[in-house]
Amino acid sequence: MSTALITGASSGIGKELANALAERGYELILVARRKERLAALAKELTSTHKTTVTVYAMDLSTPGSSAALEKKVLADGHSVDVLVNNAGFGTNGRVADENRARVAEEIQLNIGTLVDLTIAFLPGMVKRKSGAVVNIASTASYQPVPGLAVYAATKAFVRSFSEAVWGEVPTGVKVFAVSPGATATEFFDVAGTKPAGNLATPADVARVILQQLDSEKPAPSTIVGWQNRIMARVSRIVPVKAAIAVAGSLFLPKK
């Protein structure tokens, strides 16, 4: 039986994907900060799908947390067949006004932890010639976003990193990024901003992830939703000043 490790699993996309993979018979390792939510989700999944669920309540935005998670996983005898790097958050504000400690946590979680967990569990997949690493990027990765400058830059890193590693792994191992647009999760509450346009659902995102996992050779990165795919293409065609101006009109806080 395959085992999937999902970070940021207590709500939103992570929770939806946990349900979907449990339905497929995966054993699950769920990681998030909120112990009570993780415990409730584990109880629900084991009851509904009769699968095994291990939970680790951890804050992955701190340096060294990914190594600590790897140690727990290995000590408990788990082998990770599918790694879903879903945990992440954004901060909405002008860079000159940002909280440096909070931004450091944002970069650590969105980039540092994601890369380290990939490096931790990818070698086993390469050795077995099977497995998958799923990295959650964002449509914000396709252009600079004033007001979400750090977040958009971290997601651009995630997408580029994933696409590069896609080109490194042998047949049988899948590495790809998935870029949702605005999704009905807690992201905007945490970031302190409001979404622009219609919201996708976590189920929409989980459906795309499953389609990629089912593909023999998934694309290096995929955008969720046809409207978002058009917007991403347009952002690459228009002058960068125009793309920045449009993004800033949506997310840059007023002085």
Automatic annotation (TrEMBL):
Signal peptide: none annotated. The keyword Iron-sulfur does not apply. This is Unannotated protein. Gene3D superfamilies: NAD(P)-binding Rossmann-like Domain. One of its GO terms (cellular component) is membrane. Pfam families: adh_short. Transmembrane segments: none annotated.
